[in-house]
Automatic annotation (TrEMBL):
Bilayer-crossing regions: 34-54, 66-85, 105-128, 134-153, 189-210, 222-242, 254-277, 289-307, 313-339
A Pfam family the protein falls into: TPT
Subunit architecture: Homooligomer.
Annotated localization: Endoplasmic reticulum membrane
Chief location of this protein within or outside the cell: endoplasmic reticulum
Domain Sugar phosphate transporter: residue ranges: 39-326
Record protein name field: Sugar phosphate transporter domain-containing protein
Length: 354
Protein backbone atom coordinates (compact mmCIF):
# COMPACT_ATOMS: atom_id res chain seq x y z
CA UNK A 1 0.00 0.00 0.00
CA UNK A 2 0.56 5.59 -0.19
CA UNK A 3 1.58 7.38 2.99
CA UNK A 4 -0.09 10.32 4.66
CA UNK A 5 1.61 13.05 6.64
CA UNK A 6 0.58 13.56 10.24
CA UNK A 7 -1.40 16.61 11.18
CA UNK A 8 0.89 19.14 12.82
CA UNK A 9 -1.57 21.69 14.22
CA UNK A 10 -4.35 21.64 16.77
CA UNK A 11 -7.00 23.01 14.41
CA UNK A 12 -8.92 20.52 12.33
CA UNK A 13 -9.66 21.18 8.67
CA UNK A 14 -13.40 21.37 8.11
CA UNK A 15 -13.00 19.60 4.76
CA UNK A 16 -11.98 16.57 6.80
CA UNK A 17 -14.59 16.71 9.56
CA UNK A 18 -18.37 16.62 8.97
CA UNK A 19 -19.52 20.15 8.22
CA UNK A 20 -23.01 21.56 8.07
CA UNK A 21 -24.43 24.35 5.95
CA UNK A 22 -27.44 26.41 6.86
CA UNK A 23 -30.38 27.23 4.66
CA UNK A 24 -32.68 29.70 6.38
CA UNK A 25 -32.82 27.77 9.62
CA UNK A 26 -33.72 24.51 7.92
CA UNK A 27 -32.03 21.18 8.63
CA UNK A 28 -28.28 21.14 7.85
CA UNK A 29 -27.04 20.01 4.47
CA UNK A 30 -23.92 17.85 4.39
CA UNK A 31 -21.30 19.53 2.22
CA UNK A 32 -20.66 18.15 -1.23
CA UNK A 33 -16.95 17.97 -0.53
CA UNK A 34 -17.54 15.73 2.47
CA UNK A 35 -19.78 13.47 0.42
CA UNK A 36 -17.12 13.07 -2.26
CA UNK A 37 -14.47 12.30 0.37
CA UNK A 38 -16.69 9.64 1.94
CA UNK A 39 -17.20 8.04 -1.48
CA UNK A 40 -13.44 7.97 -2.09
CA UNK A 41 -12.92 6.47 1.36
CA UNK A 42 -15.51 3.75 0.80
CA UNK A 43 -14.04 2.93 -2.62
CA UNK A 44 -10.58 2.62 -1.07
CA UNK A 45 -11.84 0.34 1.72
CA UNK A 46 -13.82 -1.84 -0.69
CA UNK A 47 -11.10 -2.10 -3.33
CA UNK A 48 -8.28 -2.64 -0.82
CA UNK A 49 -10.08 -5.49 0.93
CA UNK A 50 -11.30 -6.93 -2.36
CA UNK A 51 -7.83 -7.19 -3.87
CA UNK A 52 -6.49 -8.98 -0.78
CA UNK A 53 -9.36 -11.47 -0.77
CA UNK A 54 -9.14 -11.92 -4.53
CA UNK A 55 -5.37 -12.45 -4.44
CA UNK A 56 -5.79 -15.11 -1.77
CA UNK A 57 -8.54 -16.77 -3.82
CA UNK A 58 -6.55 -16.74 -7.07
CA UNK A 59 -3.22 -17.85 -5.58
CA UNK A 60 -4.43 -20.37 -3.01
CA UNK A 61 -8.04 -21.44 -3.58
CA UNK A 62 -8.07 -21.36 -7.41
CA UNK A 63 -4.62 -22.94 -7.57
CA UNK A 64 -2.83 -20.23 -9.57
CA UNK A 65 0.33 -20.59 -7.50
CA UNK A 66 2.33 -17.95 -9.35
CA UNK A 67 2.33 -14.92 -7.05
CA UNK A 68 5.23 -13.19 -8.82
CA UNK A 69 3.49 -13.35 -12.19
CA UNK A 70 0.25 -12.14 -10.63
CA UNK A 71 2.11 -9.18 -9.12
CA UNK A 72 3.77 -8.54 -12.48
CA UNK A 73 0.33 -8.53 -14.13
CA UNK A 74 -0.86 -5.88 -11.66
CA UNK A 75 2.02 -3.61 -12.63
CA UNK A 76 1.54 -4.24 -16.36
CA UNK A 77 -2.14 -3.35 -16.03
CA UNK A 78 -1.21 -0.18 -14.12
CA UNK A 79 1.38 0.72 -16.76
CA UNK A 80 -1.15 0.41 -19.58
CA UNK A 81 -3.79 2.33 -17.63
CA UNK A 82 -1.36 5.16 -16.83
CA UNK A 83 -0.37 5.43 -20.48
CA UNK A 84 -4.04 5.77 -21.41
CA UNK A 85 -4.54 8.44 -18.75
CA UNK A 86 -1.42 10.30 -19.91
CA UNK A 87 -2.64 10.40 -23.51
CA UNK A 88 -6.30 11.16 -22.92
CA UNK A 89 -6.25 13.56 -19.94
CA UNK A 90 -4.18 16.39 -18.49
CA UNK A 91 -3.62 14.65 -15.15
CA UNK A 92 -0.04 13.69 -16.01
CA UNK A 93 1.08 16.83 -17.82
CA UNK A 94 3.62 17.38 -15.05
CA UNK A 95 5.78 14.71 -16.70
CA UNK A 96 6.66 17.25 -19.41
CA UNK A 97 8.09 19.69 -16.87
CA UNK A 98 9.79 16.88 -14.93
CA UNK A 99 11.44 14.75 -17.63
CA UNK A 100 13.00 11.48 -16.55
CA UNK A 101 16.80 11.61 -16.96
CA UNK A 102 19.22 8.72 -16.49
CA UNK A 103 20.67 10.04 -13.22
CA UNK A 104 17.24 10.43 -11.62
CA UNK A 105 16.19 7.03 -12.95
CA UNK A 106 19.20 5.18 -11.53
CA UNK A 107 19.41 7.03 -8.20
CA UNK A 108 15.73 7.12 -7.26
CA UNK A 109 13.23 5.31 -9.48
CA UNK A 110 15.16 2.04 -9.88
CA UNK A 111 16.15 1.52 -6.20
CA UNK A 112 12.69 2.37 -4.92
CA UNK A 113 11.02 0.23 -7.57
CA UNK A 114 13.32 -2.67 -6.67
CA UNK A 115 12.30 -2.71 -3.00
CA UNK A 116 8.67 -2.10 -4.00
CA UNK A 117 8.87 -5.17 -6.19
CA UNK A 118 10.29 -7.19 -3.31
CA UNK A 119 7.47 -6.04 -1.03
CA UNK A 120 4.77 -6.94 -3.56
CA UNK A 121 6.27 -10.33 -4.37
CA UNK A 122 6.68 -11.33 -0.72
CA UNK A 123 3.21 -10.15 0.29
CA UNK A 124 1.57 -12.18 -2.48
CA UNK A 125 3.76 -15.25 -1.93
CA UNK A 126 2.75 -15.32 1.74
CA UNK A 127 -0.82 -16.24 0.66
CA UNK A 128 0.49 -19.70 -0.21
CA UNK A 129 1.38 -20.39 3.42
CA UNK A 130 -0.63 -18.08 5.71
CA UNK A 131 -4.25 -17.19 6.29
CA UNK A 132 -5.54 -13.69 5.54
CA UNK A 133 -6.29 -12.91 9.23
CA UNK A 134 -2.79 -13.86 10.35
CA UNK A 135 -1.23 -11.87 7.52
CA UNK A 136 -3.19 -8.80 8.63
CA UNK A 137 -2.04 -9.33 12.20
CA UNK A 138 1.58 -9.56 11.10
CA UNK A 139 1.21 -6.29 9.19
CA UNK A 140 0.92 -4.58 12.55
CA UNK A 141 4.74 -4.83 12.68
CA UNK A 142 5.07 -2.30 9.85
CA UNK A 143 5.65 0.68 12.21
CA UNK A 144 8.42 -1.29 13.92
CA UNK A 145 10.34 -1.72 10.67
CA UNK A 146 9.72 1.88 9.60
CA UNK A 147 10.85 3.31 12.93
CA UNK A 148 14.02 1.22 12.96
CA UNK A 149 14.96 2.18 9.40
CA UNK A 150 14.21 5.88 9.87
CA UNK A 151 16.39 5.83 12.97
CA UNK A 152 19.11 3.92 11.11
CA UNK A 153 18.91 6.47 8.26
CA UNK A 154 19.09 9.34 10.82
CA UNK A 155 15.71 10.63 9.67
CA UNK A 156 14.04 10.42 13.07
CA UNK A 157 14.95 10.57 16.74
CA UNK A 158 13.33 7.75 18.68
CA UNK A 159 11.49 8.92 21.78
CA UNK A 160 10.58 7.01 24.93
CA UNK A 161 6.93 7.07 23.84
CA UNK A 162 7.91 5.56 20.47
CA UNK A 163 9.84 2.77 22.15
CA UNK A 164 6.99 1.99 24.54
CA UNK A 165 4.48 1.77 21.69
CA UNK A 166 6.81 -0.37 19.58
CA UNK A 167 7.42 -2.79 22.46
CA UNK A 168 3.68 -3.21 22.97
CA UNK A 169 3.12 -3.73 19.23
CA UNK A 170 5.90 -6.32 19.04
CA UNK A 171 4.63 -8.17 22.11
CA UNK A 172 1.11 -8.17 20.70
CA UNK A 173 2.21 -9.62 17.38
CA UNK A 174 4.26 -12.27 19.17
CA UNK A 175 1.16 -13.30 21.12
CA UNK A 176 -0.93 -13.47 17.93
CA UNK A 177 1.76 -15.72 16.44
CA UNK A 178 1.64 -18.00 19.47
CA UNK A 179 -2.13 -18.19 19.10
CA UNK A 180 -2.04 -18.93 15.35
CA UNK A 181 -3.49 -22.40 14.78
CA UNK A 182 -1.83 -22.95 11.37
CA UNK A 183 1.52 -21.25 11.88
CA UNK A 184 4.15 -21.48 9.12
CA UNK A 185 7.74 -20.40 9.70
CA UNK A 186 8.39 -20.09 5.97
CA UNK A 187 5.26 -18.03 5.32
CA UNK A 188 5.98 -15.79 8.30
CA UNK A 189 9.58 -15.23 7.17
CA UNK A 190 8.43 -14.36 3.65
CA UNK A 191 5.81 -11.92 4.88
CA UNK A 192 8.17 -10.23 7.34
CA UNK A 193 10.66 -9.81 4.49
CA UNK A 194 7.91 -8.10 2.52
CA UNK A 195 7.17 -5.77 5.45
CA UNK A 196 10.86 -4.91 5.69
CA UNK A 197 10.96 -4.11 1.96
CA UNK A 198 7.86 -1.94 2.24
CA UNK A 199 9.35 -0.06 5.19
CA UNK A 200 12.55 0.44 3.23
CA UNK A 201 10.52 1.80 0.33
CA UNK A 202 8.84 4.36 2.60
CA UNK A 203 12.16 5.47 4.06
CA UNK A 204 13.86 5.62 0.66
CA UNK A 205 11.10 7.83 -0.71
CA UNK A 206 11.67 10.23 2.16
CA UNK A 207 15.45 10.10 1.92
CA UNK A 208 15.92 10.03 -1.86
CA UNK A 209 13.03 12.20 -2.97
CA UNK A 210 11.87 14.53 -0.20
CA UNK A 211 15.24 15.29 1.34
CA UNK A 212 16.90 15.85 -2.04
CA UNK A 213 14.25 18.34 -3.10
CA UNK A 214 12.48 16.23 -5.73
CA UNK A 215 8.77 16.97 -6.02
CA UNK A 216 6.86 14.12 -7.64
CA UNK A 217 3.12 13.77 -7.18
CA UNK A 218 1.66 10.37 -6.31
CA UNK A 219 0.00 9.95 -9.71
CA UNK A 220 3.23 10.75 -11.55
CA UNK A 221 5.08 8.40 -9.21
CA UNK A 222 2.75 5.57 -10.24
CA UNK A 223 3.39 6.50 -13.88
CA UNK A 224 7.13 6.00 -13.37
CA UNK A 225 7.17 3.14 -10.86
CA UNK A 226 4.62 0.79 -12.46
CA UNK A 227 6.69 -0.13 -15.56
CA UNK A 228 9.90 -0.32 -13.52
CA UNK A 229 8.30 -2.64 -10.95
CA UNK A 230 6.84 -4.73 -13.75
CA UNK A 231 10.34 -5.14 -15.19
CA UNK A 232 11.76 -6.33 -11.87
CA UNK A 233 8.84 -8.72 -11.32
CA UNK A 234 9.23 -10.14 -14.81
CA UNK A 235 12.93 -10.68 -14.19
CA UNK A 236 12.23 -12.63 -10.99
CA UNK A 237 9.40 -14.55 -12.66
CA UNK A 238 11.68 -15.54 -15.55
CA UNK A 239 14.00 -17.23 -13.07
CA UNK A 240 11.31 -18.89 -10.96
CA UNK A 241 7.79 -19.18 -12.39
CA UNK A 242 7.81 -18.69 -16.16
CA UNK A 243 9.65 -21.99 -16.89
CA UNK A 244 6.88 -24.06 -15.26
CA UNK A 245 3.67 -22.18 -16.02
CA UNK A 246 1.26 -23.62 -18.63
CA UNK A 247 -1.95 -22.53 -20.33
CA UNK A 248 -3.81 -24.93 -18.06
CA UNK A 249 -2.76 -22.80 -15.10
CA UNK A 250 -4.42 -19.76 -16.67
CA UNK A 251 -7.51 -21.85 -17.36
CA UNK A 252 -7.87 -22.53 -13.63
CA UNK A 253 -8.76 -18.91 -12.98
CA UNK A 254 -9.78 -17.65 -16.42
CA UNK A 255 -8.89 -14.42 -18.16
CA UNK A 256 -11.99 -12.50 -16.92
CA UNK A 257 -10.97 -13.05 -13.29
CA UNK A 258 -7.38 -12.02 -14.03
CA UNK A 259 -8.61 -8.86 -15.76
CA UNK A 260 -10.82 -8.09 -12.78
CA UNK A 261 -7.87 -8.71 -10.47
CA UNK A 262 -5.67 -6.27 -12.37
CA UNK A 263 -8.43 -3.63 -12.51
CA UNK A 264 -9.09 -3.79 -8.76
CA UNK A 265 -5.37 -3.60 -7.99
CA UNK A 266 -5.18 -0.43 -10.10
CA UNK A 267 -8.29 0.96 -8.41
CA UNK A 268 -6.60 0.53 -5.02
CA UNK A 269 -3.72 2.75 -6.18
CA UNK A 270 -6.01 5.39 -7.67
CA UNK A 271 -8.40 5.52 -4.70
CA UNK A 272 -5.55 5.84 -2.21
CA UNK A 273 -4.00 8.61 -4.30
CA UNK A 274 -7.26 10.58 -4.35
CA UNK A 275 -7.41 10.45 -0.55
CA UNK A 276 -4.06 12.22 -0.13
CA UNK A 277 -4.73 15.66 1.31
CA UNK A 278 -8.45 14.98 1.70
CA UNK A 279 -8.42 13.30 5.11
CA UNK A 280 -6.22 13.57 8.16
CA UNK A 281 -3.67 10.96 9.19
CA UNK A 282 -5.80 10.15 12.24
CA UNK A 283 -8.90 9.43 10.17
CA UNK A 284 -6.86 7.43 7.67
CA UNK A 285 -5.34 5.25 10.38
CA UNK A 286 -8.66 4.69 12.15
CA UNK A 287 -10.30 3.78 8.85
CA UNK A 288 -7.42 1.43 8.12
CA UNK A 289 -7.94 -0.33 11.44
CA UNK A 290 -11.67 -0.72 10.75
CA UNK A 291 -10.83 -1.97 7.27
CA UNK A 292 -8.48 -4.62 8.65
CA UNK A 293 -11.05 -5.82 11.17
CA UNK A 294 -13.65 -6.07 8.40
CA UNK A 295 -11.17 -7.97 6.23
CA UNK A 296 -10.45 -10.47 8.99
CA UNK A 297 -14.18 -11.03 9.48
CA UNK A 298 -14.76 -11.56 5.74
CA UNK A 299 -11.93 -14.06 5.48
CA UNK A 300 -13.36 -16.01 8.42
CA UNK A 301 -16.70 -16.19 6.61
CA UNK A 302 -15.23 -17.10 3.21
CA UNK A 303 -12.58 -19.64 4.24
CA UNK A 304 -13.77 -20.59 7.72
CA UNK A 305 -10.45 -19.50 9.21
CA UNK A 306 -10.25 -20.15 12.94
CA UNK A 307 -9.03 -17.36 15.19
CA UNK A 308 -8.02 -18.12 18.77
CA UNK A 309 -9.10 -16.02 21.74
CA UNK A 310 -5.46 -15.22 22.40
CA UNK A 311 -5.20 -13.70 18.93
CA UNK A 312 -8.31 -11.58 19.44
CA UNK A 313 -6.94 -10.24 22.74
CA UNK A 314 -3.40 -9.68 21.46
CA UNK A 315 -4.50 -8.03 18.19
CA UNK A 316 -6.82 -5.66 20.09
CA UNK A 317 -3.93 -4.50 22.27
CA UNK A 318 -1.72 -4.18 19.19
CA UNK A 319 -4.25 -1.99 17.35
CA UNK A 320 -4.51 0.33 20.35
CA UNK A 321 -0.72 0.63 20.47
CA UNK A 322 -0.55 1.34 16.72
CA UNK A 323 -3.21 4.03 17.00
CA UNK A 324 -1.36 5.72 19.84
CA UNK A 325 2.00 5.45 18.10
CA UNK A 326 0.68 6.96 14.87
CA UNK A 327 -1.62 9.63 16.27
CA UNK A 328 -1.05 9.97 20.00
CA UNK A 329 -0.88 13.78 19.93
CA UNK A 330 -3.95 14.12 17.72
CA UNK A 331 -5.97 11.73 19.90
CA UNK A 332 -4.98 13.58 23.07
CA UNK A 333 -5.85 16.90 21.46
CA UNK A 334 -9.24 15.64 20.30
CA UNK A 335 -10.00 14.41 23.81
CA UNK A 336 -8.99 17.69 25.49
CA UNK A 337 -10.68 20.08 23.07
CA UNK A 338 -14.34 20.88 23.31
CA UNK A 339 -16.97 21.49 20.65
CA UNK A 340 -18.68 24.84 20.78
CA UNK A 341 -22.39 25.03 19.89
CA UNK A 342 -22.98 27.37 16.96
CA UNK A 343 -26.66 26.86 16.39
CA UNK A 344 -29.40 24.27 16.68
CA UNK A 345 -27.80 22.02 14.07
CA UNK A 346 -24.11 22.81 13.78
CA UNK A 347 -20.84 23.06 15.66
CA UNK A 348 -17.81 25.24 15.32
CA UNK A 349 -14.36 24.04 14.36
CA UNK A 350 -12.49 22.02 16.91
CA UNK A 351 -9.87 24.33 18.32
CA UNK A 352 -7.46 24.43 21.21
CA UNK A 353 -8.19 28.11 21.78
CA UNK A 354 -10.48 29.11 24.63
Amino acid sequence: MTSHERSSGLNFDMSVLPTFQYDGGKAPIVSTQLGITIIYLLVWVASSNSIILLNKWVIDTAGFSYPILLTCWHQVFATIAMQVIARTTTLLNARHSQPLNVKFLLRTIVPIAAVSSGALICSNTAYLYLSVPFIQMLKALSPVFVLFLTWLWSLKQVTTSDMASILVITAGVMLTSIGELEFSWLGTAIHLTGLACEALRVVMIQALLTNEGHEIGPLLSLYYYAPTCASFNLMFATLTELPRITLADFAKVGWPLLLLNGAIAFLVNISSITLIGRISALLMNLTGIAKNILLIGLSVVIWGTEISRLQVFAYSITLLAITWYSNGVEILTACLTFVRPRGPWGYSKLSSSG
